[in-house]
Each structure stands twice: as structure tokens, then as C-alpha cells.
Amino acid sequence: MQYALLFYAEPGLAESLSAEDLADAQAEYAELVEDGRFRDCARLLPPESATSVRRSGGRTLLTDGPFADTEEVLGGVCLVEAADLDEALDLAARAPLLRLGGTVEIRPVVRS
Amino acid sequence: MLASLVGFLGDFDRAEEAAQEAFTVAAERWSAADVPANPGAWLVATARRRALDRIRRERALAGKVHLLLPEATVAVDDFDDLIESGRFDADGTASIRDERLELLFTCCHPALAPEARAALTLRALGGLATADIARALLVPEETVRRRLTRAKAKIRATAIPFAVPGAHRLSERLDAVLSVIHLIYNEGCRGRVDLGAEALRLGRVLTGLLPREPEAHGLLALMTLHRARFPDADADADAGDGAGAGAGDGDGHGGGAELVLLQDQDRSLWDRQGIAAGRAVLDGAVALGGPVQHGPYVLQAAIAALQTRERVDWPQVARLYGRLAALTGSPVVQLNRAAAIARAGAPHTALRLIGSLDLDGCLYLHSTRGELLRRLGHTARARAAYGRALDLATTAPERRFLARRLEEL
Lengths: 112, 409
Prior knowledge:
A: Alpha-Beta Plaits; two-stranded antiparallel sheet; globular; B: mainly alpha; Arc Repressor Mutant, subunit A; 0% strand
């Protein structure tokens, strides 16, 4: 079964880390991605870079900024392969983000 | 039976449906003279067969494989053989695994909403009807139905496993199971449907299935001892001030301090046999734990056991509350510890400890403080503390008791 891990953190978390801590975290993520169960992973640029698109009355409207204005922001996404929720939880628990105060949301991916 | 079916079918609704059908078939076929030698096994086998028939029909219709586990067909053929060949009574029970433990871990999975876990456990392992659960938890039936539906949907959608957790997370998951059973027990103390008995039954099931876990025995001992001391856990029982005994509050449920003062309790009402049974379970838990540090349920049971003694060893009760507080970090436990320290003859130390607690919204903090100040002769301050407690009281017995205390000052 496939699950999406959504990585949420306070804005500016990566920038607030020392060069050393950041390098450690990046090395840990690189290790995770080598685990076959981690499929596609993507780290996102900060929400200031976001553009939101919606359609209203046949017109496409663009807004500068993220769709949801929340305390914590989506900073990355991973798709993982796991037998059940407990295995997915094990994988999520390995994310360095948790140690740094962030939250990982786990959502099953719809099977086509 | 339901546990075995959920394990087999991997789906709550299907399992419930199949069980229902099996009972219907049984009602039609069994006569007084003609009950199978092993009715339980017969029911499970029949329910499995019915469920698989249904799945096959649905599969034929949809033309898709969704739910059927690969090994299921094999298993059911075995059962058919067993039934046909009449070897059922010999092999029946052995073939059907007891999967209540798996079911318990699924129902108490921390990914489910806390309020859904208790309802699901009562439904799946206690066999309680939705209406009974609603009455027991004091919520509308519709709410329980919604919680159950949502929880079952989440189990299915997110593939919450039907399994005993691996060693690396067993202790954390066991804690979740224990706290659900304890919650069910505490809800039972509020009256209505007898959830206390149900929680005790679940506690016995759990200790039977996990005989080596000290905390499972600790919880069973705690509930057994508590029930022996409050045989009719009467909702209208007179309110106390919490300066006496207090059941610790390991996981944040309940008010922490008890309504009846230990010294005012009529010991002749205690269930002596129940107390002896609870102590025996506690001894077993302590022996299992060995020299390692005892967990919160064993500590709470030990405190409850001490309080059933003819002469209560309050310094020891206070020490155990201290260890419990260190484990749980709960200020309510600290409040109980303070009460025990006072009973041990050190009211000033107790008052200082109470003064350091961040529990301003807690009725028992103020009533305990009031009682200690009264005994030390600080009448005006005692009156203020009791007044604050009265402001916080929400039930009639609490208000009656506190008003009487104030008058006596």
C-alpha cells in the first residue's frame, strides 16, 4: 500500500539551523531515500515562492502565496510503500524533521 | 467470535454481518436436542462460510478482487471438511485461533480518535449494542454510531493492522490498550450500564492473553481493588474533600481524588473477597516486574492495596505517590501525594507541596487545602479555600458536602 508523508514545519525552520545541523539532516534524508520503501520525495521551497491557481466564472485567477494560511507550512512530500499503517508510521518516525519540532502527516494514497 | 472473524475477513462490518447471519442460522437449526458439541466453533465456521459466499457473490458481480485474502479459500475448505466429516468437536477449537488480542490492539490503535477507541472496544470485544454504549458513555446514540462508522472507515482506509504490534512498539501500544480499559472502568464508576464489570472482564482477557506483562496485571489489580472498596459505586455517594485517599490518575482521566473520605468509609461494606483477589493479582504483577521499576498501574494498585489495610501506612502511600508522580508528571498525583503526606502527620509539608501545584481550576486542590488549614486552626484561610472549592463544584453532592464543611467552620 502507498502512503504520502506530508512534512509540516514552522516557516524558516531550515534557515534557522546551523550549517552543521542542516548537513546532518540532509544526510539523514539522503539515507532514507536509499531505503527502497521511500519512493518519490520532494523538498519544497518556502511558501513565499507559492502561487495558487483557481478558476472562477471561467477565468483563471492567480494568488501570490500558499492556498492555506497556516502556522505550519508544507515543506516536503514523500511517497512510501508500506504493508500497513504501522510500517508507514515506522518510516515517518525516521524523518529528522520530527526531532526538529515538525509534524509528519500520513495519508493513504488512493489505489487506482 | 467477532475477533476471529475480523482477523479472518480483515473487515469489521463484514465480520459483524457474518456473525449475525450465523446466529440466525443457529436459531433456525439448533433445537434443544441438537446443539453442536462445540457451538462456538460451529458459529465461527458458519459465519466464515457465509461471509465468503457473500464475498464470492460480490466479486462475481464486480468482476474485481478486492477483499479476499489469498489463504482464506483454503481455510474455509478445511472448515467445510471439518463440519461435513463430523470431526468438528475434536479439532474445532484448535483450528480457530483466539484473535481477541489482535482485535484489542486494532480497536485501541492510537491513530483512532480516543473517544472512538473505547466505543469500538466495547462493541467489538464486549459485544455491547450501540444503544448500550451510548447509555454507558452518556452520549447520544447517534454520536456513538458516527464514531464507530468513522473509526471502522479509518481502519479500512489507512490499513491499520490487525496484529499484535512488534516488540519495538509493544509497550507503547499496550499502554494505549490499558488506558482504554481504564477509561471504560472509570466511565463505569459514573453509573448507568455496568461498565466496571465489562472493564474487569477485558482486564482478565488481557492478562490471560499477555500473562507476562506486569502492567496488564497491575491494571486488573487496580480495578479489582477499587471495585471491592466501592461495591456499588453509587453516583449519589456523598462527596468528600479529597484530603483522604485518592486513586492516582495515571493517564489524565477522572478527577483524581475520590469522593468518599477513606476515614468516613464504612469498611464493613467492602468486599473482602474482592480485596483478597486484587491483592493476589497485585502480588503476581509485582513478582513479574521483578527488580525493574514498576509502571503506573502497578503503583496505583499498590497504593489501593495499602489503603485496604486495617492501619494504613501513610508514609508508604506518600512514597508510592511520589514514584507515580515522577513517572506521570501529573499534578493531580502530586495532590494525592500531598494528601497522603498530611495523613502521615506532616500537614505543613503537605500545604507547601499543594501551594506549588499549578491546579487552580481543581476543586480538590482547594478542598484539600481548606481541610488542612482547618485542622491547623487557620479558620479564615480555610473558609476562603472551601469557598473557592464551592465555586468550582459542579454536582449537587459536591456542593452539599462543601456547603456543610463551610457551615461547620
